[in-house]
Structures are given as structure tokens and as C-alpha cells.
């Protein structure tokens, strides 16, 4: 424990010395060469799981899931080209996030955080067509932690696609409403697993400056070598962002998924999973803020969650509290506490003792420019 305290203190003081930009990595614009823009992003962390998992991997998390180890969750270089009718992005990535999420992708593709080409089809209309690998619109959290209220991701985001590969069509229907349509290889797939394409629709509605409502629908065949019994997957999620003032922010997310499965008698049945979470953030001033989240996640038939105890349904309540400190426009320090509680025994510790609860602390430094 002394070692963990030492690391947390070290992370805190190191955070005071970094530099960057307040913009999201999606808008990095620190170095410009004519129409090219180059940026970078580094997300480092140390987590301590009080169950002390035997393999030093925090269960059920994909991002920032190494226990008692100073690690890099995501480091990337962001290269962009923007003109009136054409844009391009190349963003190679590294770190534990890339290792966990891109493990099934072929070598050469498993380091592509994002790479895409986009064409504006009509000069005076907001219609773009993008090809490549790009961030998924599903759920309200992305791999870029600095854009979110808390450092650790909700379970809702960890079990939906973080990235998609295919074609994205953007339509600006009005000043308040955008529509996006995707034709992709599958549920978080660069390499197509079954030669069957999936479809996603997204509506992004901003009725007023302080409100944003996003609604997504996914339909695709999820049969693969790992899941030979799977057939069509139907999924929908909606989230609401509310920003009534500079000090207070709220975001709430709900989704539900349905998975068709074929049993040994070739009978079709449908399993479902769903979740709901709400997070709030209060800013004391531009440098200091605090955020909290509560979440319920239910996957009773283990469709998307690989359970440590396969005989038990995955049903978990999670709560989190995060202190955020942004000393300048280029860096952020965060201290995140996370608690999990399940109906059944889903957690084990170093001594292989079963438990229904888990608690973890994470310290993080993120820098960008």
C-alpha cells in the first residue's frame, strides 16, 4: 500500500508540469502545416483493486484494467488534413486499451485507433461520406478519457463498440438535427468475421444549447468462429446531455440489446442485456471539479460479458466518484474511486476467495497537445 501511495503522490506532482489544449482530441489543432494538423494524446494511470486479482487484471474492465501497475491506457498521434470538400485522419494508437480492444484484429490493423477519408458530396450541403475506421457513436463515452466526467469508463461503454470499420454518411438536416448512417463490418470489427454487413443509424438532436439527445440503432449478424450460435443482433441506445450552467452537467444513458441464438436442436431463441447509468459533474472553478456516477448493468445470459463464474448471471450495480484537477490547458490529473456489487458471486481475489463486491482506486494523468 505504501507503494501505491507513493505512485499516487508522484502522479499528482508530475501532473503540474505538463502542457496541451482544452479541445478534445477530436479537435486537436496545436501544430498546423498548411491544411495538415498534428496532435498527440497520452493517458497514463495506476489502479489498485482491493480484491488483488491473481492475474493482476481488474475483471470486467477493458480500459485501464491493470492492477497495481503504472501503465499507459492510450497513447496516440493524431494527423489530420482538412479542406472544404475533403478530410483525412490517421491516428495510430498504443497502450492497454489498444491491446484489449484490438486483440482480434490482424497485425497491421490492430494499431489503428482511427484512419479515415471523407468527401463532401455537395458543395453547399452538409453531406459527407467517410470511409475507414472511426469512433463508434454508441454510448456516451469514448476511449478519450479527458472528455468524460469520470476517468474510469462505465460498464455500458466497455461492452459496446468503441470503433467501427466501414462507411459513414453524415446529413445535416437542420441547425438542430443531424443524421448519420453507417454500413460496417460488424460489432467492433475491422476484419469482417462473417462477410455479413451491419447497419447503424444515429440521430443527434440539440433542441436548445443546454440539451443534446442522441439515439442509435444497430442491426447485424454476429455469427463468428467464437460465437457460432449467434445470429442477428438488435440494439438501441439513447443518451441525454444536460448542461444548464458552467458549473453543473448531467448525462444519462439507457440501452438494450437482443441477441438471436441457435441451440443444438436448431431452435432459435432470443437473449437480452440492458443497462442504465447517470453521471453528474460539478465544477468549483475552471481547475477543480468532482463527478459521480451510478450504473446498473444486467447481462443474465452472458451475451457480451465473459463472466468469471459462468454459472452465474452477470448483474452488477456500480458507483463511482472522481476528483478532477486541470492545472493548465494541456493536462489533467484525476483520482477515481469505483465500487461494484453483484447479486451473485462474480469476483475473486488473490486467495481465490469468492466475493460479491469489488472496490478500486485509480490515479490518472492525461496530457495532450
Pick out its properties.
369 residues, Porin, 3 helices, mainly beta, 19 strands, single chain
Name the CATH homologous superfamily: Porin
Order of secondary-structure elements: HEEEEHEEHEEEEEEEEEEEEE
Provide the number of structural domains.
1
Low-confidence stretches: 1-29
| Count of strand segments | 19
Please identify the top-level CATH class.
Mainly Beta
Question: Over all CA atoms, what is the radius of gyration?
Answer: 21 Å
Would you give an account of this structure?
- The protein has helices at 2-15, 96-101, 155-158; strands at 31-33, 36-49, 71-82, 86-94, 112-120, 127-135, 163-172, 177-184, 198-205, 211-221, 230-242, 248-262, 268-283, 288-299, 314-328, 331-342, 347-348, 354-355, 357-368.
- The chain has 369 residues and is mostly beta strands.
- It has a single domain, classed as Porin.
- Strands 2-3-4-5-6-7-8-9-10-11-12-13-14-15-16-19 form a 16-stranded antiparallel barrel. A two-stranded antiparallel ribbon has the order 17-18.
- A hairpin with an 8-residue loop joins strand 10 (211-221) and strand 11 (230-242).
